[in-house]
Structure formats: structure tokens, C-alpha cells
Amino acid sequence: MKRNLYVATAAAVVLLAGGPAAAAVAAPADAVRTAPAAAPAAPADTTAEGAAAAALKDYPGVIESLDRDGNVWHVDVITKDGKGHAELKVDAANGKVTRENVDTDEDAGEHKELLAAEVTAEQAVKAAVAAHPGEAWAVEWEAGDGNGKAASWHVEVRGSDGKTWDGSVDATTGKVTVRADSDDDYGNG
User: Fold this and answer.
1) Which H or E run contains 167?
2) Could you tell me where the DSSP H helices lie in the chain?
3) N or C: which end of the chain has fewer CB within 10 A?
């Protein structure tokens, strides 16, 4: 006990007089204990919701599609007047947005249904993940066909088990259903 007190006191004196390098030389190896250096924190992975927010901050409008490809989110945004369209990339590691292509002479009528939709891409993602827990991997606008098929959002959710649920979210009601062409293992929503 006394030995530890003497060693600690000696180490403190050496630190005051000569700094950490001197302490390492003067003190016995078992007396100098240092905490391992903490590894730098890895950046949080950008979710679909985060990618959507970053894209809309860079290019305000309405999301038409968003999908993840490796470490990049591809986001298509239509301006609220329907005349502008941007293809953006959002880095999933840091949320940085890069504009790939911007077009300012779109036909506003082509996007009328999307712009009038009561359910946004962001809301469709939240609804799909609430119905089928996991991480949204893609969301894409699907216009109505005029033959009874209503406009909807196609959403892919990856579960923690690695399986993908493929569903639709009604653009008016927000109702979530499994897609008829889905190969999921989750069953009907």
C-alpha cells in the first residue's frame, strides 16, 4: 500500500517537472496506466428520412423518388410549381448533397398528380416502416393509370433479418398494402 502511494507521488512529481514523456521513463511500467485512446466516432448512417431532408434543404420541392445504392442515396425532386426537376446524390455516410442534374423547363402538367398528393414520400416511408419495421431503402411515386389504379408510393423496407418487404402506400389515404408482385416473406400488410 505504501509502495503504491510512493510510486504515485513520484509519478506526480515527475509529471509536474518533466511532462508525460519523463513520467514514462522514470516510473515503473505498472505504475503508469493510461486509458486507451478512444476511436473516433463513425458518422451516423443517413436514413431515408435524413436523405430526404438533406435533399429538400438543398433543392426545395417534392420528392418523386428516393433509393439507396450502396453508400449513396439517389433523390429526384420536383419543384412545387412542377417546372423544375433535380437529380441529387446524398452521401449516406455524411449527408452531403451533390446535384447531378437540374432541369428548369419541365412540363408542370406532368407532375400535377404528384404535387397534389395528400401523402408525401416522407409520410409514405413513415407509414411503411410503421407497418413493417425495418429501414426504408426506396420510395418511388407511381401515378394513377386512369383505369381505376390510384396513385401510390412504392416503398421497399429492409427488415433486421435482411429480407425486403415491398409495399404500396396509397397517395390519398396513406393505407399500406403489400405489393401483388412482391417476393417478400412478410405476407399481406
Assistant:
1) strand 164-170
2) 2-26, 48-58, 112-116, 121-131
3) N
